DNA sequence: GTGCACATGTAAACTGTTACATGATTGC
DNA sequence: GCAATCATGTAACAGTTTACATGTGCAC
């Protein structure tokens, strides 16, 4: 059982979707902690179905291609419920090209370095603003369910909070780096 | 030219090392922004050598195997200097298993969830403490060079600052999640 | 004598991304 | 006519991890 399988189970426990739907949801809603394209998703759905963790029914559509709507099974739900609180030992490999560049920034041109970090800061600030908007909407939904921790909105809320914290921290770091460079240029 | 190539150039611009040395340095000093094993490093060094970005000389040793000491060439240095301030468009894929679990935490047992996040918080707090120790040492080195931004210690300093910020933010988030769960348990 | 540190490589397996492949409908 | 959205898949490629392979010397 690979992690992508759990990703799909997590989405299917919230509703029934086609492979196409799941691809969109991944891109639009959970891209800040997982990414996958349709070429990974379709085979994985087939694997989950072979293991009876999900089922599907073919829905015929007029003027559009037929689609397979997948639903989680009881076995899938049980597996997922068990897995979510299982100790995580595997730290995912961290690879960050910007930090790599920062490590060698002392070699490069300061003006260009400032430009690089200003661009990055802007991107993270933009991302942060988007996440905050999404968070406001999620919080509203969660409120309507009385802020219960067994509501799916609780999951959305706490995970997006990490996305927000990360982007804020990243943007702050970018600005701090710019300051450091400027001080080094004009300083004693 | 792949990113791992630049990683090795960044280390070799600071000194001359063997493949074995580089493997150790990667693990011990820059693991928070890049990871690679020796099976990736040896072939990549050969590639860099073929492109005249690095050279090596074989150093014979008594009572130990011979080693190849690699050094960066002028061409390698020039390529690296240019690359470090080049705009970064490729956002590295974010994949975080704990955030994935958080997204579905509403399904799982709260007690076990708390334990999961306490364990994680502890690991990030430990990591944070280690980074801060390393940072103190780096700052000392950098001070001795008058905090010049064209010192290699500047690169070490700013990149590790990101590692520290990230770990602090992550640990904070873990504690915050625990609080949220506890409030949900005892709340109205 | 067992395991660890030094030292360098290759091969196989796995994961993930990009490209190929098909086909209908809707909007510009 | 051309691009975009819906819809599902396979194939090729690139990058990463794990395992295989070999050999010396030192400490316990």
Describe the structure concisely.
Helix content of chain A is 64%, strand content 6%.
Describe this protein's structure.
Two copies of one chain form a homodimer. Chain A has 188 residues and is mainly alpha-helical. Chain A contains seven helices and two strands, in the order αααββαααα. A two-stranded antiparallel ribbon of chain A has the order 1-2. In chain A, strand 1 and strand 2 form a beta hairpin. In chain A, helix 2 crosses helix 3 and helix 6 packs antiparallel against helix 7. The longest helix of chain A has 35 residues. Chain A is elongated and about 65 Å long. Chain B binds a DNA duplex (28 and 28 nucleotides) through helix 3.
Largest interchain contact: A-B, 77 and 77 residues
- How many runs of DSSP E, i.e. beta strands of chain A? 2
Strand content of chain A: 5-15%
Give the assembly state of these chains: homodimer
N-end to C-end Cα span of chain A = 58 Å
Q: Structural class given helices, strands, pairing of chain A?
A: mainly alpha
Radius of gyration of chain A: 21 Å
Count of helical stretches of chain A: 7
**Biggest β-sheet strands, sense, barrel of chain A:** 2 strands, antiparallel
| Proportion of helical residues of chain A | 55-70%
Shape of chain A: elongated
- The ordered H/E elements of chain A are HHHEEHHHH
Strand line-up of the largest beta sheet of chain A: 1-2
Low-confidence stretches of chain A: none
On the 0-100 scale, what is the average pLDDT of chain A? 95
